[in-house]
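for the writeup, i need someone to sanity check this before i put it in the appendix. the sequnce is what the collaborator sent (i think, or maybe the updated version? ugh). structure was predicted straight from it, no edits. if anything looks off just tell me and ill rerun, i have time this weekend
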Amino acid sequence: MKQISFIIFFLIFIITFSQRKDTVNKTNIQVTSAKAEYQKVELKNEVLENYIKTLSTKQESKQSIWDTLIPLLIGSFLTLGTQIYFENRKNKKDKDNQILDSKSELERLISLLRHNYNELAMHKSHKHYWYAQFQYEENLETPNVNDVNKFYNYHIESSSKAIMTENVIAENFSNFTKEISKIQHLTKQNIQINNLYNEYLTYTPKKPQDIMSVHRSNLYDLARKEEDKLKEEYQEYIKILNDIKNIV
């Protein structure tokens, strides 16, 4: 503010001084004639003009830098801030979608595993059922060789199907753990899951019992009861898997 006041005062002083000088010193007045019809008078003050020119040049130089730099900085910050905002929003949306996809996959895998365990209970109970039929047929006074071989083959087939089902269970459980790992990577880790994994891996269901009866006609009912007991035992696996799914 002091500088501006000084400049204004200095300009008034220069103008006043120049006017007084111009009235006294006629050498600063140039008269030009054109056919003696009119006169043109031009007042010049080189000191004032040079000073004003210098101030104008400095002011324009100073203004040009900030007038260019400030809008660029503002534009850059606005552009960068907008990009960061939308990028974060997109990343959050992508992460939420990935979590939803993984949780949907967990639901599907648990449904598959429930079906797998029901199949395993069926094949294991059938394995004992067909072996009981084989023993009854083999112990007859006049056993039917074809039936003996047939029942034994059914027994072996049920045993093979039980092993195949266990392999499918292992594969589906592996896929289940992969989806859990994906979710934990996108969210915070939960150490409780490790305890549940250990509980799942160490759980030991009751083994199916041999099916024997005084009356051969009771074998089928005994096999069904054994299958239901095994299904109930295997439900503990599904319960643990649901507990894992619910805490991620």
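The chain has five helices and two strands. Strands lie at 29-33, 39-43.
thx in advance!!
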